[in-house]
Specification:
The complex is a heterodimer.
Chain A: H1 2-12, H2 16-28, H3 33-52, H4 58-72, H5 76-82, E1 90-96, H6 104-115, E2 118-122, H7 129-138, E3 143-147, H8 155-166, E4 174-178, H9 184-190, E5 194-195, H10 199-220
Parallel strand pairs in A: 1-2, 1-3, 3-4, 4-5
Helix pairs in contact in A: 1-2, 1-3, 2-4, 3-4, 6-10, 7-8
Chain B: H1 8-17, H2 23-41, H3 56-73, E1 75-77, E2 82-84, H4 88-97, E3 101-104, E4 111-114, E5 126-128, E6 133-134, H5 139-147, E7 154-156, E8 159-160, E9 162-163, E10 166-167, H6 173-193, E11 199-201, H7 209-214, E12 227-231, E13 237-238, H8 240-252, E14 255-260, E15 263-264, H9 271-287, E16 293-296, E17 299-300, H10 309-325, E18 330-335, H11 343-358, E19 362-367, H12 379-395, H13 399-413, H14 426-429, E20 430-431, E21 436-437, H15 439-455
Parallel strand pairs in B: 1-13, 5-7, 5-19, 6-8, 7-11, 12-14, 14-16, 15-17, 16-18, 18-19
Antiparallel strand pairs in B: 1-2, 3-4, 9-10, 20-21
Helix pairs in contact in B: 2-3, 3-9, 3-10, 5-6, 9-10, 10-11, 11-12, 11-13, 11-15
């Protein structure tokens, strides 16, 4: 148990080499991989919560995330068999829309979704609307997240929704939009499924719409 | 003095020939550890009790840390994955060559834009700017309203979302149309008001390099006596389209402003890192953007504003650092939480202008409602900020006295930052026919101005 506590501390402190060594110790001591993964998951979620409470800032969260990735490396052989037991909240492809080169807001949302249990595929910035959809299909995503930081790039979000309709895929993916000039009124106008005012709200908003979607899916099954 | 441009083609070429580095490694292996190191090495510490510090040693430490940080980290071109690096002698040479003063605008409307000193008794150069987007039909009345303000030394217009009723989308023909409309209408507004040669910063509607280049036209568009902005990518990154703007602005012959806003809570971390990064951005502006002046808008990661206690400290510490150690012309951009026609927005504007002016910056005022909501900006917020800037310089206000005043002003709005009121849209508190404020907002402005005077600010009129 002491190893797990030290591991949690190492991840939260962003000490990637220490985290790796401690996971290796845990494996050598034949600890249950699921226990270790759960401890890591809780540790990184706690860092995400601290970020929301402004107790830590982005560098600490990034270093913790990197330590988490490093700690997961020795567990990779076990992860496949654990996958059944670990329930992921959903899969998200996320990017900044075409013509827009601003990344940080989208990157923070991606990081927060990841630490809160979503599988996230970050497509980067200046992403064409069709590329969002193709990648969402490729990764069998539940959600397309589109960020826009300029008023003149916001139409790129609308283009994704319009293309989904034209491709008869509108019901296949949830579309979440965000970015500094993006408002709930704009999200409603273009027919997006979700809008978050900032990165911190994005997780709660997505949890809610995913819950509604799952409820709807089970009701229609 | 000839610079800028300063060895422009040699520096731009480094975006193709500099050391290879991937994005993530640039941030994780270079940026983050070096930032921690320089903050620790120079003992830089934020003090919430002094949003306007008076310690020259702190200002010089922030400068030195920013210089070392910039030298070690460089600027990453994300298209080529190459780092543009510099040696210290180049930085020293470029700093030496800065003239520190330009005559901007033209004819009777031309003004002197210069670097200011800490506690400078010359008033700041004030660029009025709503910093938001607006409805197409409000563009002209808004421009006229701002241009009617007597303290406006320069003006930057709102951003269009539509042109001829069509939604503007970046990198498409609608962006070219919107940018053209922006430049033409702005020029028309300046002429109508009787300030045809006023220093204009344009065209904000043109996000892409192509759209910016399309409005370089001295008859109806952006002139060589005007200015354009070139930004960066978060943090200390750039791409080829931005470098295209750099080269074009120099070849066209207008003034270049370097537009950078380090994020408090982002890669730079806390207030200390944000201030150090802001100094590094001044050097990036000088050497990569080839800028004549630096436009700064450090902002809070959660609120997208620059008037929290920490961000006032960032503005003060970084502007003092630059003012004490270089001739770089610095302009401080207010990002306010509350919207127009609220008491809070006026106090925020006052706090930002006070902090920036006494710390050695010029002013760019202001972006209300967190720079987010269409039509939510008016000239009155900018007017009050400009008046506060003029008041502090005329009074010869010291940093210590300014800090006492800032603490009193902070007490008026600080608790409401998280739930700041959105206020009104331009057309709800201004007469769009006359481009003048309504009596209700004027009365609020007068009351807050009187309260600021009661707190100790002596307005020159």
């Amino acid at each position: 148990m002491e190893i797990v506590q030290r591991l949690v501390q190492a991840v939260q402190d962003g000490e990637d080499e220490d985290a790796l060594a401690l996971v290796q110790q845990a494996m050598a001591a034949e600890m249950d991989p699921l226990t270790v993964v759960d401890a890591l998951t809780d540790a990184i979620r706690e860092v995400g919560d601290r970020f929301e409470r402004m107790e830590v800032f982005l560098p600490e969260m990034m270093l913790a995330s990197r330590a988490m990735q490093k700690a997961l490396e020795p567990l990779a052989p076990h992860l496949e068999q654990l996958r059944e037991k670990r329930r992921q909240k959903g899969t998200v492809v996320i990017g900044t829309v075409e013509g827009d080169i601003h990344e940080i807001g989208k990157s923070i949302v991606a990081l927060l979704l990841e630490v809160n249990g979503y599988a996230v595929h970050d497509l980067g910035a200046d992403v064409n609307a069709l590329d969002f959809i193709k990648k969402a299909q490729e990764f069998e995503a539940d959600v397309i997240g589109a960020s826009a930081l300029m008023t003149t790039t916001m139409p790129g979000q609308q283009e994704i929704v319009e293309l989904l309709k034209d491709m008869k895929l509108r019901d296949r993916f949830l579309v979440m939009v965000g970015g500094t000039p993006v408002t709930d009124a704009w999200a409603e106008e273009i027919g997006a499924d979700a809008w978050a005012e900032n990165a911190m709200q994005a997780v709660a908003v997505l949890d809610k719409v995913m819950e509604v979607r799952r409820g709807h899916a089970s009701a229609t099954l | 003095m000839p610079a800028p441009p300063y060895r422009m083609w040699e520096i731009l070429e480094r975006a193709r020939t500099g050391p290879f580095c991937e994005d993530e490694a640039f941030t994780m292996e270079r940026f983050l550890p070096k930032m921690r190191e320089v903050i620790r090495k120079h003992g830089i510490e934020y003090d919430p009790g002094t949003p306007i510090p008076s310690d020259d040693g702190l200002a010089d430490a922030v400068w030195q840390a920013g210089l070392e940080f910039f030298l070690e980290v460089g600027v990453l071109c994300v298209d080529t994955h190459r780092i543009i690096t510099f040696d210290e002698s180049e930085i020293r040479e470029a700093l030496y060559l800065i003239p520190g003063e330009y005559l901007v605008g033209s004819g009777k409307d031309s003004r002197r834009l210069r670097n200011r000193h800490v506690e400078d008794q010359d008033p700041p150069f004030v660029i009025f700017s709503p910093d938001i987007s607006c409805d197409e039909e409000l563009f002209l009345p808004m421009c006229v309203a701002y241009l009617k303000e007597p303290l406006a030394d320069g003006f930057c217009a709102p951003i269009l979302e539509e042109s001829m009723g069509l939604k503007i989308k970046a990198k498409t023909p609608t962006e070219l149309a919107g940018s053209l409309e922006h430049a033409m209408s702005l020029r028309e507004a300046a002429r109508l008001v009787g300030r045809p040669g006023i220093f204009l910063v344009a065209a904000g509607t043109a996000e892409s390099d192509v759209a910016q280049i399309s409005v370089s036209q001295s008859d109806w568009g952006v002139r060589t006596t005007d200015s354009r902005l070139v930004g960066g990518l978060t943090e200390l990154k750039i791409d080829n389209a931005l470098l295209n703007k750099v080269a074009h602005y120099q070849q066209f012959g207008c003034f270049t402003g370097s537009l950078t806003g380090p994020i408090f809570g982002g890669y730079a971390g806390r207030a200390e890192g944000t201030a150090v990064l802001q100094v590094a951005y001044h050097l990036m502006g000088l050497l990569v953007h080839q800028a004549h002046y630096q436009m700064n808008f450090p902002f809070h990661i959660h609120y997208t504003s620059g008037t929290t206690r920490e961000l006032l400290w960032v503005a003060s510490a970084s502007h003092q650092a630059v003012a004490r150690n270089s001739k770089i012309i610095s302009v401080s951009n207010g990002f306010l939480n509350a919207g127009p026609a609220t008491e809070m927005v006026l106090y925020e504007a006052a706090a930002h202008a006070l902090t920036s002016t006494v710390s050695g910056a010029n002013l760019w005022e202001a972006a209300p409602a967190r720079n987010k909501h269409k039509n939510r900006a008016t000239p009155l917020e900018a007017r009050l900020a400009a008046e506060v800037g003029h008041a502090c310089s005329h009074m010869g206000l010291t940093r210590k006295a300014a800090n006492e005043l800032a603490l009193k002003i902070l007490a008026r709005y600080e608790d409401h930052i998280a739930d700041a009121p959105l206020g009104s849209e331009f057309q709800d508190c201004y007469d769009v026919r006359t481009s003048l404020p309504n009596e209700e907002y004027l009365e609020l402005y007068r009351r807050v101005r009187a309260e600021l005077a009661a707190l100790g600010l002596v307005f020159p009129y």
